[in-house]
Amino acid sequence: MGVSKIASVDVIPKINEQFPSDDTLFLKFASSDLDSDGKEKALIEGVAKIHKKSDQKYNYVAKIEVPEGFGEIGAVIVELKENSTERFIDTIFIKNLGGSTIEPGETDGLSGMIRRIYTYLVVLFAIIRLVLESVTRCIKSLFRAPPVQQGSTTTGALGSPLNANCSTSETPVTFSCNSWIQPKNLIPDQRRIFFSTKSYLPGKTPAGLLKLRKEDLANLRGEKADGTTDKNERKAFERIYDYDVYNDLGDPDIDPEWTRPVLGGSDEYPYPRRCRTGRPHTTLDRSSEKRVEGDFYVPRDEAFSEVKQKMFPPNAGKKNKLGTNPFPNFTEVDLMFRDGIEIPPSSHDILKFNIIATLNSSDQPAPPSVQPDIIQPDSTKLKFPPPEALKRDKFLWLSDGEFARQTLAGLNPYCIQLVKSWPLKSELNPEDYGPQESGFTTELVQKLIGISITVEEAIAQKKLFVLDYHDILMQYVEKVRSIRWTTLYGSRTLFFLNSDDTLEPLAIELTRPPMDGKPQWKKVYTPSIDHATDIWLWRLAKAHVLAHDSCVHQLVVHWLRTHCCMEPYAIALNRQLSTMHPIYRLLHPHFRFNMRINANAREILINAGGIIESTFSARGYCMEFSSLVYKKEWQFDTQALPEDLIRRGMAERDDKAPHGLKLAIKDYPFANDGLILWEALVEWMTEYVNHYYPDDKAIKNDKELEAWWNEIKEKGHPDKKNEAGWPTLETPKDLIQIVSTIAWVGCGHHSAVNFIQYAHAGYFPSRPSIARINMPTEDFDIIPEKFINNPESVMLEAFPSIAQASTVAQTMLILSAHSPDEEYIGKKIEPAWAEDPMIAKAFDKFKMKLDKLEKTIDQRNENSELKNRRGVGLVPYEVLKPTSGFGVTGKGVPYSVST
Ligand SMILES: [Fe+2]
């Protein structure tokens, strides 16, 4: 005797979208079991019709008859009517008819009373049968030999395999789809397959689902029935994941000035891969891909939600030549955040987007810090909300202590490093770049640190730290200086660690390589409180270093190491791990919207003539520069937080220290908060991985996992595949380290360097994105008259122009804002995790640790002894607090890199 079931399908309409009342979904259900001949059982078919609807959800239901012995339903194939619009399938839930939410009398002609009696009887019999069959099957399973399958293990103690065996055809089944499906006429040769929330390693896949598992992966790789791969230009509705080089940043057909090298695929410009779009090549440069007016392709499920899409400008200009006029005085700078300024001529189209109005129009009220409109209605004024740092102390930008503190608790805490050897020396070829010796001589530094400690002692006691941008920037100085209204130096900034754990800047060294027939030029600047000229030179030197730090932060620490490097992991995940794979389900939240935000970046931020090139010191060489750093420095293993700290000398292994690490600077807010988050992540991932992989054999037998890891190296980062830093994947411990590193980059690393951009860099004197003119003393010891008579105007000329400053402030504001539908780490359990009690328990522990982190951060920020976190007028360090409201809050850790 078969069983009647109800398949309930929740579909989320787009905003203001209405589906026709006779709309239908065609469903086909697959058994997890094979028939007695070892073949797939015939699919059960059902037609789901609209049952209920609201603004947020349509509920469709289908009544299906499941024949006796069919086994558990493990997959569902969904089809739409020909020529209908796409649908977002949220969840499919299958349960016995007795448990239906359908109102009596809605699905058949029985009268209400008869219908209810019938339903109660069905439910009663179903429950009795369910209990009996479950008990019988479980008892049998304990005495049955394990199925002979690739990679199978005999364990049942950890829950999942045993649970699978205990499932029956009466058990309710949930399919958490969260995916777009297209009408058959658009994608005729692919079936949309969804698997239930139970996760299976390949070797433990129920036999009836093996072919479907392979079919779905082949679809995602664009493999066709004839064995070829679809290499056509991708269309927005497709869901094919493939790789390509960064060859669509330039636009040579429009203007030869916008020709850019291909990043990736060469020794000169190695780079991670992006998602392939297959657009035609440009006419003038056959290695480059044409740019298009609309959105660049990403697979359909990678697109932003409609709520998130509203947070980004719909029609921001893709290239703008920005005006070069400097602010006339600092009063005018302050007006940006008070009464507003006139919109500058030749400004960027992004300024037309009113992000604050968008935040205010959301269902939730915007936080007070972002209440004012950027652009006043019916006005030509441009007005920004005061950034947090400016609100708290308008003179903070002049503080040397804050300049140093920012390296530990600012938006770029990733570059400060311990001075491990002395004297500092360049590794560049002296024939090209001049003498290698640093201007930081022992004599000079001894004078700067005083007589209480020698330089040797300071090194031995780990008292000297440096921001060293000398070698990486020197290689671009001559190129960058060929562009008008920008300049560049190699730079080093030396810091001394005081006894109260604060850093104090000792000196800045700026170096220009030999060029234009002139020899290398270098000069050391030191803080001064005595002489006016020295005070102003120091301020200018700081502006240059801050511009360098802005470049490295934006192009390397933020873009390259998080946004860019995560994309190939996401592509490989979708191509090689089935959606029912436990590691797919573990990592998938960490890739939400990553490909879309990266495609947006290629459209308007990192492209030739885009926002980054227009506003950062390296200008047209910004992306080349990020390729250089990828080549010289990037390794997978050092992306893990502990390894990153050790690499920079900011920590050393110590089993007795918290987290097994002794920090070189005890009050290092980013490291202290980050290590708690890192450790919580590792513990969660350890329990998760060990649950599915009890031993090394389980790892070795997982061919999907092996293919995923190999593809990350071979196709995602092929230019680095033979270099050091890739862990082997042979044990559960290896896997824990790999997934923890990826997850950390997606959540902790990105959040730390993204969500306080506006707070600290919105007011550009604190952190200019560009320094536009050379130091007034370059090549000469004579102080120019203009500088003597009006140093403020020289400073403002060096700072970003009005058009640049407002473009950067607007961009930072957008990037620093959380969307109302942000998914914060640990806040909500994924349906597939909740399915398994062991995983659900591990997640609860993870969540509790994150809740504790919130409180720990609050306590730390109240502790006056932690001077790098607390002080008069300082912005408290909250950026790694896991949760947040929406908008610009300076805290909150989403799972993924999506802004
Ligand atoms: Fe970001």
TrEMBL record:
Record region (Disordered): 269-290, 363-383
EC identifiers of the protein: 1.13.11.-
GO molecular function: metal ion binding; oxidoreductase activity, acting on single donors with incorporation of molecular oxygen, incorporation of two atoms of oxygen
Pfam families, alphabetized: Lipoxygenase (PF00305)
General function of this protein: Plant lipoxygenase may be involved in a number of diverse aspects of plant physiology including growth and development, pest resistance, and senescence or responses to wounding.
Family, per entry: Belongs to the lipoxygenase family.
Protein name: Lipoxygenase
Species of provenance: Cucumis melo var. makuwa
